[in-house]
Amino acid sequence: MWSDFNKANHEAMITAELFSWPVTLAIMVLAFGSLVAAGPPLLLTVAGLVASAGGYGRWPSGSCWPSASCSSRR
């Protein structure tokens, strides 16, 4: 049951992303006046998402960084 939900949710998220990025780009071009000015905020957003997704799950489960509870484990 949950696998069906997760699959449907994933497909809905991908579809929403495919439609929202061009709309966001168009609004930002209108707001900033040019594609060159609208590009860096979108590129920084993508870079932040990639960086946060890339670091997700890389720390070993015994690691206490970045949580502040390291002193309580010792």
UniProtKB/TrEMBL annotation:
Mode of membrane association: Multi-pass membrane protein
Keywords, comma-separated and alphabetical: Membrane, Transmembrane, Transmembrane helix
Keyword match RNA-binding: no
InterPro entries recorded: MMPL_dom (IPR004869)
Pfam families: MMPL
All copies of domain Membrane transport protein MMPL, residue ranges: 3-55
Stated name of the protein: Membrane transport protein MMPL domain-containing protein
Species the sequence originates in: Nocardia rhizosphaerihabitans
